[in-house]
Amino acid sequence: MMQRHDYVTPYINGIRFFDKPPLMYWMAAGSMHLFGIHDWAARIPLALGFLALLLSVYALGIRLFTTISPTANPDRGGFYAALAMATSIGPYLYTRFYIPDILLALWMTLAVHLFLIALDRISTPQAQNALLPCLAFAAIMALNVLTKGLIGLVFPIAFVFLYLAITKQLHLLLKLHLLASTAIFLLIAAPWHILAALRTPAIALPQGVGLPATGGWAWFYLYNEHIARFLSKRIPHDYGQTPIWLFWLFTALWMVPWVAFIPASIPGILRALRRKQAFVLAHNSDAPAEVIAHKEKSAIAAIRRNRQEAITLILWIGIVLGFFTLSARQEYYGLPALPALALLSAGALAVADNRLADRAKVQRSLLRWSAWLLVPLTTLVAIICEYFAFTSHPPAPGTDIVSLLAMAGGTEAYNLSLSHVTDLTGAAMGFFRGPLAATALGMLGIGFGSYLLRRRGSTYAANLTLAAAMTLTLLAAHDGLTRFYPILGSRGLALAINEAQLRAPRTDDLIIIDGELTAGSTLIFYTGQQVHLINGRVNGLWFGSFWPDSPHIFETEDSLSQLWAGPRRVFLFTYDPTTRAKVLATYGTVQTLASAGGKTVLTNR
After folding, report:
1. DSSP assignment, residue 415?
2. What does the DSSP assignment read for 117-183?
3. Which end of the chain is less crowded, N or C, counting CB atoms within 10 A of the terminal residue's CB?
4. Beta partners for 11?
5. Could you tell me the maximum CA-CA distance found in the chain, to the nearest angstrom?
6. Whether residue 219 is found in the same domain as residue 119
7. Integer Cα distance of 309 and 167 in angstroms
8. What CA–CA distance (Å, rounded) separates 560 from 558?
9. How far is it, in rounded angstroms, from Cα 472 to Cα 442?
């Protein structure tokens, strides 16, 4: 976008790219415009978005968990919810990738909170005007649509309708300033959609591959990327499908270790759902009538707030997980439900931490789940980590980690975003001795450390200890992840190409990736050059390659041999250097420029 000065039609490597709306691209481009074209500058918006998510979860937690008890800490539930989001596995992992799903969690949290504010204002006599929260809700929904498409409409609208239906308040829908809210939504979301459709009109498409006779941005983005993807009929079908049971399991896993406390909140949620909207205290003849009336009013307000909390969280989780249970799904598609899961666990922790009626019962439940789930699992992980930390041997200097891995081979083996972890071997563990030792220490703090404090009744200290130990674990995970960087990315190889071009500048150099773009897309960013692809007219670039302005970047085996024998200097990025070198040697000189992470750059000069 910055190079082409076109902020409407996304391009990748010179090819129109229709898969996603542009907000994430706008954010990265804006940040790099301010700070320069650096990888850290591109990632700043996602980091800020996650910090905003923590604050929004904190604020919503305060709203949902405010009680009438004078001894309660009104912000404790919000604090624990934000702490759970900040120190869980999923949010950490999926802010290492520049993907929009964490932003979806932010927009969903803000939308739910704004709707509850608006609902309170229109259902309470002499309340403030609900126009402002309704307009803000519409604006957030528009940003949601510009982040990941029409799902940004589905989740918040489904939440509003179902919440009002469940609470028998559908008649209040007309009081939500629908016309003004719709105008704000269209003002923010419509311009890009209209311009994108106008700038990429329908063209004739090749037949025999499932495409319609003609199609443009509107067909591919609105139908193919949304309806067809939901039905698992998207063309091309370039993504894996996580089984339903594994999708639900992963969603729970992303909330580790705080997911262990969610079961303790379930009885309170069920009790809140069973209670009536009205509540009358037992008559106390010794108390003045106005005191009794005040107590009744306070009790009714508390019950309504408890029901609001229960319905909000269960409905939120059900909409997100239910939608992806019925549609195509990846293992991280449940991320928009994580704030609700964090709030569920925080509700139980807040009750146990305050002097409330259910405190003792919830404390016993938390202690049981800690003893029978958290302690055994963390102890097992600690033992495994300590074993490998002390028995593995440090690798020899200069050893490439990929030489010690059991690579599965084939792209289908890596459909899951964390599939490379399964390549680890005992020999490779020598690369991770420090992170493994730190993880073992963190696991003991998460399990035994927090359990002992919880058993003594020090719930606040137990929760802070758990968060601190999880922070140590995540720092260890980060340190370990950096040792996978040569496999996950190709920055070092791109810099090697840059250095070779500085030593011997030429104007006709050509960088070629042996396969599809995702095999080495890092090269585009760090070299700032367009790359060619061998047999790479597939997946994300496939549909955009049909447009007349598509550059000639798709090579074949024959064109590669001609280029290798020609006058141009060629840098070939490949995962199979031995076979490639043997074949290309018949056409010209083959030299190895650099190797890292199982990838090699060969050159003919």
Report:
1. -
2. HHHHHHHSTTPPPSHHHHHHHHHHHHHHHHHHTTHHHHHHHHHHHHHHHHTT-GGGGGGS-HHHHHH
3. C
4. 16
5. 104
6. yes
7. 12
8. 5
9. 6
Q: pLDDT tens digits for 304-362?
A: 677 888 999 999 999 999 999 998 888 999 999 999 999 999 999 998 887 666 778 88
Residues 134 and 50 in one domain: yes
List all residues 6 or more positions away from 586 whose beta carbon is below 8 Å from its beta carbon: none
CA-to-CA separations, 474 to 88, 319, 579, in angstroms, rounded: 9, 29, 40
Q: Phi and psi (nearest 5°) for 593?
A: -85, -45
* Amino acid at residue number 97: F
Calpha distance 591→572 (Å, rounded):
10
Distance CA 521, CA 498 (A): 15
Listed residues 331, 357, 383: the one ending a domain: 357
Q: Which two tokens stand for residue 440?
A: 């073992």
Contact partners, residue 89, CB within 8 Å, separation at least 6: 253, 254, 255, 256, 474
List, in sequence order, the alpha helices (H) in 200-288: 217, 229-230, 244-253, 262-274
Helices then strands (H, E): number in the chain? 24, 10
Structure-token match 């041999």, residue found: 561
The residue from 357, 385, 407 where one domain ends is 357
- Cβ neighbourhood burial of 176 (10 Å; 0-12, 13-18, 19+): buried
Report how far residue 138's alpha carbon sits from residue 144's, in angstroms, rounded to the nearest whole number: 10
Residue 2 lies in a domain: no
Which residue range(s) make up the domain with 516?
A: 491-603
Domain shared by 239 and 322, yes or no = yes
CA gap 142, 190 in Å, rounded: 9
Same domain membership, residue 76 and residue 170:
yes
Convert the pLDDT of each residue in 139-161 to its tens digit.
999 999 999 999 999 999 999 99
Number of Cβ within a 10 Å radius of residue 207: 9
3-state secondary structure of 574: strand
Mean pLDDT of the chain: 88
- Categorize the per-residue pLDDT at 288 as very low, low, confident or very high, splitting at 50, 70 and 90: low
Q: Please provide the DSSP assignment of 484-531 as one string.
A: THHHH--HHHHHHHHHHHHHS--SS-EEEESS-GGGSTHHHHHH---E
The DSSP letter of residue 397 is T
